[in-house]
Structures are given as structure tokens and as C-alpha cells.
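Hi R.,

Here are the chain sequences for the assembly we discussed:
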Amino acid sequence: MNVRTLCLAILYEGPASGYEIRKLSMDETHKFAHFVDASYAAIYPALNKLEEEGLISGRVEHQEGKPAKRVYEITEAGRKEFVRSISQMPEADKFKSEFLLMATHAEILPPRLIREAIEHRIASLREKVQALEECDTCACSPGSRFVLAYGLVMTRTSLAFLEEHRAMLEDVAGAAVEQDTPDRTEAAE
Amino acid sequence: MNVRTLCLAILYEGPASGYEIRKLSMDETHKFAHFVDASYAAIYPALNKLEEEGLISGRVEHQEGKPAKRVYEITEAGRKEFVRSISQMPEADKFKSEFLLMATHAEILPPRLIREAIEHRIASLREKVQALEECDTCACSPGSRFVLAYGLVMTRTSLAFLEEHRAMLEDVAGAAVEQDTPDRTEAAE
DNA sequence: GTTAGCATGTAAACAGTTACATGATTGT
DNA sequence: ACAATCATGTAACTGTTTACATGCTAAC
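And here is the predicted structure of the full complex:
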């Protein structure tokens, strides 16, 4: 998904400014967390283009004690365009994990690093589980409830797997590295 | 992860040509499937740059009945650089799902589309589970075994969740749309 | 009086894709 | 004859990020 669709998706829920869209796209507990996290430099031009196309309409809103903000609202044409853009057969999920890349190479990395990375990951997965558990599922649509429940199940599964199998990585960490001995050629090829 | 690191990761396992790296990066059952899928236009320049930097070295290999290929091998400096590049604390996993975006908005989409998307997803998840089950885990390192096992558990969980809760989406699909314009749907490719 | 947050935006750079260009060989 | 696979590569484009620029208010 691109920033354009992200903006439409968020504005479909209700009016927001560029700044608020950014905050929402970063909030892990928000449903859009499953999709993108965009920077301001991507959001503002996207909003301007969407307004040019008549898919959203903006108005300046003055606030006390804060700078004025430009609040956008989705138009009827925008709603149609959004529905059209999510009506194609979805592509397979895309997933990238630096942790799994590290895990694959546990043997050639220092045990300390592996242990730290595991602890770090467990901590952030626990945080995410907690945040998802605290979401008020009553407040949202059935579709969003499905997605939140899915996120919770997947995050719990990920956490449980790591807690159960962490020894698999910790026990082999550093096994294929000789620290002091210079020019050690590895046996495995 | 970027194409540069992908190339180093694959060449760390053994020599390969640009064409072969592409194939490996696309193979869902291969361990690198968890990381990136790069196009030729990204791989070839990356390989040239890595060779310039002395991190890999290439030689032309002539073949009978096929065009010659340029096979690259990782150098000692390349191995060091790869270890260095995966030694930073891993960032949180990145995940994008067009299916979940669609699911979130099940209410405003036609039931037919939702049903098709679910069937499609179930089919591809089943394929992935089967492919992962057929992987010969004995042949690979403990780190790779961990990653493969993780992939299998997560894929099975995703599949089970969808099979158990598909009704949640199917029952609400189209609930929030007025059929004022009858059957203006075009056949998707 | 400095840091943090609100708010919008631009310029330069980077990463990566699509489409194109080439050419050989094998199979239908 | 035509398509598919192997094999390498470039040009143009898209999308996105980093760093910068501005300025106002609130809190420490």
C-alpha cells in the first residue's frame, strides 16, 4: 500500500490533518499499523495531490495556543476511489524481519548479541500484545475487530514461539566463530 | 533489508550469479523469502558495486547450451562486512497486508469479492504450508531451522485463524453499501 | 532559556520498479 | 515460427526518506 491509499483510508474514517495522519500511521495499536508508516515528506504532497484530484477537501482550522492546521475531509469521489483501490485481489502479505536474518546466522554471531536481540524482541512483542489487548474492540467495525483479533493471535504466537525455542538460537550462537585464533577456516561449506 | 545485504547473505552461503540470486530471492520456500524479493535491475548494479568495493569477486563461467554467466564469490572482506551489517539491534518486523486492509473494510465491499479473497488467501496459505513442510530441515543450519520452524508455525496460525473466523467477514460483507447502482462491476483480470 | 510538541512544507538523495534492449538455446 | 528459459544489463520513472527550513506555544 502507498501513502495515497493510506491517506484515503484514514480520511475514510473521519477528517484529519497531515500531522494527525502521520501520528495515526505510527500508532502500533491503531488498525493502520498493519499497513504503512509514512513520513511527513510523503504525506503532505500526497494530500495536496488528492485535493487537486478532488478526492479530499481541506479547510484551515484555527486553534488556541497551537498553530492552525489544515484539516482534510474525504469527498464522495474520494470514497469511490478508495473502494475501487481496495477492490482488486489482494497481493500476498509482505513481511521483512531483520531479527530472522540475524537468527538465520546465529552461529556466526556473538552469543551476547543473540541473547540481547531475543530479550529485546520478547519485550517489544509483550508490549504489543498488551497494547492490542487494551484496544476497545466494541468501538470498531466487525472488519476492524477481525483484523485486531488476527494481530493479537499472530503476535502471541510469535512471542510464544520465541519463548519456547529461544534455546535453539542461544545454544548455537557463536559456534562457528573462533574469537582469538586467526585465519580459522570454517569446516562446513 | 536492502538488495546489497540480500546479495551478501546469499553469497555467504555459496557462489551464485545475478540470475541465480534473483531466483533464490523469489523462492518462497527458501529462507531468504522472509526478507526481500529483488528485481534484476536492482541486483546487477548492486553486484557491480560490491565487486568494486572488494566484498565479492566475480568470474565468467562458460556453459554448454546456455549463455555464459558471471558467478560471484564472497571475499573475506565481504564476510566481515556482512557480519557487521547484521550485528546491529534488529528493527521491529515490517509487515504489510493488502488482505487485512480489505478485511478492515469488509462492510463496504461486495460479499462476492470478500469470499473470493478469502478463498484465494486460504489456497495460497495452504500452498505455503505444504512447501515449508517439504523443506529438508536436516540439511540446514540450526539458525535456518529456527527460521523455517517459525515460518511454518506463523503460516499455519494465519491459515487456522482465517478458516475459523472467515464468517466474521463474510457475514458483514456489503452490509454498509446501498445497491443504488445495480451490478456495475467489471470482470477483474 | 531551552527543550518538546504542534504544524506545514521543500530539496536532495536514495532505493527500487517497469519497461526495454540484446542474444543464445531448447522445446512445441 | 514461436514461446520459454537462461543471462546481463540500462533508462526512465516512482515512491519514499533524510535533512533542512520555518515559526508558534507550553512546560521545565
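Strands of chain B lie at 16-17, 56-63, 66-74, 94-96. Residues 142-170 of chain B form the longest helix (29 residues).

Let me know if anything looks off.

Best,
T.
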